[in-house]
Every structure is written in C-alpha cells, then in structure tokens.
DNA sequence: ATCACGACCTGGAGGC
DNA sequence: TGCCTCCAGGTCGTGA
C-alpha cells in the first residue's frame, strides 16, 4: 500500500502538526523491521521538541524538529501515521505515540511490523543507512531519462525489478511498477539492459504520470492505507492493470494477465505491452 | 557485483 | 462457526 503517492498523501495531511510541540513520547518497545527495536532513548529525547517540517524521500517520511534531530518513519506494508484525539483508545498495534497537546496525538501503528522508526542527526542525513543509497525521488527530483537508461544498461534483471529498485528510483512499489509499465507499454519481464532511448523516455514519463495521477486520487487503498486524517485513498478505482486479472485492458480490450514474477504479483496486458 | 529467493509478522479471505 | 491454508502493498540478508 504505502508507495510514493500514499506516503506523499500522509505527508500532506501531516502539515497540520507543523508547529506543534512534542509534549510526550510513548513507544511499545516492540521490534519493527528486521527485528530491530526502535531506539527508545533517542525517541524519548524528542520530548519538548517542536515539529518544523515533514519531508519525504521515496517511501520515507522525515519529521524535522527545532533540534538537530529528525524522526524517520517508514510505513512498511501496513503502517499508519495518523492524528488522533488523545482520548481515543490505543489500537492493538500502536508502536509510537507523540503527545502534541490540544488533545491531539500523532500515532504510528503497524500490524505487520514491517515499518521502521528511527531518530537521526539531520546534518548527517546522507549517511543514514536507509537513506544513503536511495535514488532520485520522481516528484521532488524528477527522473532523468539519460540517467535511467545508463542505470538500465548496467543491469540484466527484468524491467519490473529495475523499476522497483529503490537505488534507481525511490518510491515505486509493486502496484505502481505494474501500472507504470502498462502506461509505458513495456513488458515487465523485459530485460532492463534492452531498454531503448525512446522506451526510457516513455518509462520516465509513465512513472511520473502514474504517481501524479495516484496522488490526485489520494493514493491507493486496497486494505490498510489511510492518510494522517484517517481518510482512505480513491485510486484503487483508477488502476489499469493491478488486481485486474481477467478484466479487459482499457486500451485494447485484451484480458489482463497476472503472473508471479520474483515472488510478487505482476499484472500486464499481453497485447499492448511489448517484450 | 548482481540477482533470485526466502524471511520477517499479522490479519483477512476463502475452502472445507 | 471454526480451523486451516494461502496471500498481501516492503526491505534486507543469504547464497548462487
């Protein structure tokens, strides 16, 4: 669920907490991604800090404060970062609660615990292990077709794996990889080093347009995703291939095919997506 | 160095 | 109704 458009939707709805002071910090103590426990002492040291900005790179949210530290949040597959009333009961899978005063709390919940929480020094952001290797963000940096083709030619993996590689482009996940390749009329199983210049241009434009259009619809909600205000996204109704196996392609009416590629569901139109 | 695969964890859906 | 199995949007470590 939370790929770039969903994380950006959360970021935008989180603008409401900018200027708020973190009056209290509570964490569940449970391990999240890769059995790593979020650093409790550094989380709690945010007490008293004021939130100054909420940024994003790919699928990572960066909550800046008026101190040298920022909070890093990755939503994994089922993570939510939502503003709640302080009197609302804590959900079962709540892992972080920032008390913001005015009866508001910013809560991170994550049933599957594939998410990530960390506190890092902003001055050394580039060195953070999760951020250091990220490629350009399609919304904030754009995608340079020349750089895209150079990266594609260095690899032998499929185009789908290429588009999913966060070191190449930050923020594309399984849903939008299928969607962008459909839009670019390229077969997901095509080897990335066979990408032509014209195809690379089409792919760069397709990724950007796929993401922008999903963002306009508030992101894709298949089961868990909601924005920081609790509102689900509407983009599931606008998907062209993802989760549409056996339904007609909106361009050519051929039935959409589902394959398992690299252990992930992959959808494409056998007619209008060239090999 | 690059790639494919499995593991991480829980809940929901569907079959019996 | 209840138990079982399978499946899921991300990322990383392992072994080939």
Summarize the structure.
With 275 residues, the chain is α+β, with helices and mostly antiparallel strands. It has helices at residues 4-13, 40-44, 145-153, 159-164, 174-183, 197-216, and strands at 24-27, 51-57, 60-65, 69-74, 79-85, 94-101, 104-110, 116-121, 257-261, 264-268.
What does this structure look like?
The protein has six helices and ten strands; from the N terminus they run H-E-H-E-E-E-E-E-E-E-H-H-H-H-E-E. The chain has helices spanning about 5-15, 40-45, 145-155, 160-165, 175-185, 195-215, and strands spanning about 25, 50-55, 60-65, 70-75, 80-85, 95-100, 105-110, 115-120, 255-260, 265-270. A four-stranded antiparallel β-sheet has the order 1-6-7-5. A four-stranded antiparallel β-sheet has the order 2-3-4-8, with helices on one face. Helix 1 packs parallel to helix 6 (about 195-215), helix 3 packs across helix 6 and helix 5 crosses helix 6 (about 195-215). The chain binds a DNA duplex (16 and 16 nucleotides) through loops.
Key traits:
single chain; 275 residues; 4-stranded antiparallel β-sheet; 6 helices; 10 strands; 22% strand; globular; DNA-binding
What sequence of helices (H) and strands (E) makes up the elements? Answer: HEHEEEEEEEHHHHEE
Uncertain runs are none
Discrete helix count: 6
Mean pLDDT: 94
Structural class: alpha+beta
| Cα end-to-end separation | 27 Å
Q: In what order do the strands lie side by side in the largest sheet?
A: 1-6-7-5
Specify the biggest β-sheet: 4 strands, antiparallel
Shape: globular
Strand content: 15-25%
Oligomer: single chain
Structural Rg = 20 Å
Helicity, as a percent range: 10-25%
């Amino acid at each position: 669920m939370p790929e770039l458009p969903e994380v950006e939707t959360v970021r935008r709805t989180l603008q409401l907490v900018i200027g708020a002071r973190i009056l209290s910090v509570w964490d569940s103590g449970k391990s999240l991604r890769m059995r790593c426990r979020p650093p409790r002492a550094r989380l709690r040291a945010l007490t008293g800090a004021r939130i100054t900005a909420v940024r994003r790179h790919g699928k990572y949210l960066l909550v800046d404060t008026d101190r040298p530290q920022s909070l890093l949040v990755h939503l994994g597959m089922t993570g939510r970062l939502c503003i709640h009333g302080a009197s609302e009961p804590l959900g079962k899978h709540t892992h972080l609660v920032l008390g913001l005063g005015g009866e508001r709390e910013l809560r991170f919940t994550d049933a599957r615990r594939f998410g990530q929480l960390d506190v890092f020094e902003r001055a050394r952001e580039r060195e953070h292990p999760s951020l250091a290797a990220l490629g350009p963000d399609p919304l904030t940096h754009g995608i340079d077709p020349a750089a895209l083709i150079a990266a594609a030619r260095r690899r032998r993996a499929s185009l789908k794996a290429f588009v999913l590689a966060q070191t190449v482009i930050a923020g594309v996940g399984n849903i939008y990889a299928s969607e962008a390749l459909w839009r670019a009329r390229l077969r997901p199983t095509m080897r990335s080093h066979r990408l032509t210049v014209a195809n690379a241009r089409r792919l760069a434009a397709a990724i950007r347009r796929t993401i922008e259009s999903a963002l306009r619809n508030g992101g894709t909600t298949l089961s868990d995703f909601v924005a920081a205000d609790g509102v689900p996204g509407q983009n599931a109704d606008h998907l062209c291939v993802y989760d549409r196996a056996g339904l007609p392609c909106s361009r050519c009416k051929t039935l959409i095919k589902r394959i398992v590629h690299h252990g992930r569901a992959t959808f494409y139109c056998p007619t209008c997506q060239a090999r």
